[in-house]
Amino acid sequence: MKLWHLIQLETLWQKLQHPDLIATLIRGASAALLIQTAGAGINYGMQIGLARWMGAAEYGTYDYVMTLSTILALLAGLGLSGAVLRFVPEYTVKQDWSRLRGLLLTSWWQTAIAGLITAAIAIVIIGVVGRSTSLNSLRSSLLLGVWLIPLLALLKLQLEMSRSIRQIVLAYFPSLVMFPLLLTGTAFGWVYTQQSLTSITAIVISGFILVFILIGQQWFFQRALLPSIRSSPPSFGLKQWLLVSLPLLFIDGSFIVLNQTDTLMIGALLGTKAVGIYGAAFKTATWVSFILASINAIAAPMFSTLYAQGDRHTLQQLVSIIARWMFYPAFIVTISLFVFSDPLLSLFGSEFVVAKWSLLALSLGQLVNVGAGSVGYLLMMTGHQNQCAFVFACSALINVSLNLIGIPILGTFGAAVATALSMILWNVWLNRLVVKYLGINPSIVAALRPNLTP
């Protein structure tokens, strides 16, 4: 990294207000980055282990069920995790402990109840529809897996609850590190003693681990709350909270559709073995954009601060520096995936190597995702979330259409091309909106122009 870039970043930090908050942000972001890095490596190792122990078909079934349960868990959450992250800091500043406690109680119970209702509805639908479709062979796994919905919804909520009170380790460690570690260790022990591992067994193990994590995380969270919060009588404002949470749910829902449509449609059209093979390529390709998520965790609040100050010049400097920091590692990872695609996929098992071309297509899509810059956060942190939501919704519909066309013709490679094209579309679109509304260009192309990086 060039010394001049470091000097530029130091100047940017000095222009930001509230040094105490910035110090807290740096500590929290550093912890989040460390946990995310460790968690990504552990989770990737877990996926390799499960694939090798279960085989492509059973691994694909597990991946399909977990994907479906995660999507339904997001819907069951009603966007309340976003409302918690939005209102808890505000109530803390105002010392409105009653409203804060009411929000925590309401969001937890609403999420739990909505998750159970969603699971019950899913069971009815699976029982009726599953008998006459290609999903009939998955009925047992699906009927069992839908009970993970309330657990996954609460895991997401408790993550944001912990973030809202600046307990970064408590927020990320349970889901990103503890869950894959416990699942890997327990699955290995099961394979060692039973000589086999099925998707149903893996789902059951996941359920027990989620319950254990949720109980432990909630216990530590309650201990981290101020005594004045725990002793205050709860006060409720559900209408106000839902007015914030439901639009956020729409954005999250559109984004999850963009990221999971391919997996669901492959399972419905090609079967779970194809899901498993494609999943290995998809999870490997995400390494290209890993640095994007890590840097965004640090940079997003800075976008909001500089925009509020009206300092467009400094904001342009910041996004240009970030673009270079993100793109060069992503480019190196992409080239490495192109060169070492066969040995990397063979880590999952020899039958996964056929996903090579899917991996290459997805990697290119992820590279454009990084090259476009932090477009989503730039819009959402500056009050342009409605425009962002519209782009995601349109891109989700296009993604579904492309998958419907591509999968029957090209199989899993068609899904990879559809996903990559959709990813390119929404990133280029959002980039144009950032230029239009903010007057800056966060892409790597702009960052390489000398006049934008004095």
From TrEMBL:
<feature type="transmembrane region" description="Helical">
    <location>
        <begin position="321"/>
        <end position="340"/>
    </location>
</feature>
<feature type="transmembrane region" description="Helical">
    <location>
        <begin position="413"/>
        <end position="430"/>
    </location>
</feature>
<keyword id="KW-1133">Transmembrane helix</keyword>
<keyword id="KW-0472">Membrane</keyword>
<feature type="transmembrane region" description="Helical">
    <location>
        <begin position="64"/>
        <end position="88"/>
    </location>
</feature>
<feature type="transmembrane region" description="Helical">
    <location>
        <begin position="108"/>
        <end position="129"/>
    </location>
</feature>
<dbReference type="InterPro" id="IPR002797">
    <property type="entry name" value="Polysacc_synth"/>
</dbReference>
<feature type="transmembrane region" description="Helical">
    <location>
        <begin position="21"/>
        <end position="44"/>
    </location>
</feature>
<feature type="transmembrane region" description="Helical">
    <location>
        <begin position="241"/>
        <end position="258"/>
    </location>
</feature>
<feature type="transmembrane region" description="Helical">
    <location>
        <begin position="287"/>
        <end position="309"/>
    </location>
</feature>
<feature type="transmembrane region" description="Helical">
    <location>
        <begin position="197"/>
        <end position="220"/>
    </location>
</feature>
<protein>
    <submittedName>
        <fullName>Oligosaccharide flippase family protein</fullName>
    </submittedName>
</protein>
<dbReference type="Pfam" id="PF01943">
    <property type="entry name" value="Polysacc_synt"/>
</dbReference>
<dbReference type="GO" id="GO:0005886">
    <property type="term" value="C:plasma membrane"/>
</dbReference>
<keyword id="KW-1003">Cell membrane</keyword>
<keyword id="KW-0812">Transmembrane</keyword>
<feature type="transmembrane region" description="Helical">
    <location>
        <begin position="169"/>
        <end position="191"/>
    </location>
</feature>
<feature type="transmembrane region" description="Helical">
    <location>
        <begin position="141"/>
        <end position="157"/>
    </location>
</feature>
<feature type="transmembrane region" description="Helical">
    <location>
        <begin position="360"/>
        <end position="381"/>
    </location>
</feature>
<feature type="transmembrane region" description="Helical">
    <location>
        <begin position="388"/>
        <end position="407"/>
    </location>
</feature>
<dbReference type="InterPro" id="IPR050833">
    <property type="entry name" value="Poly_Biosynth_Transport"/>
</dbReference>
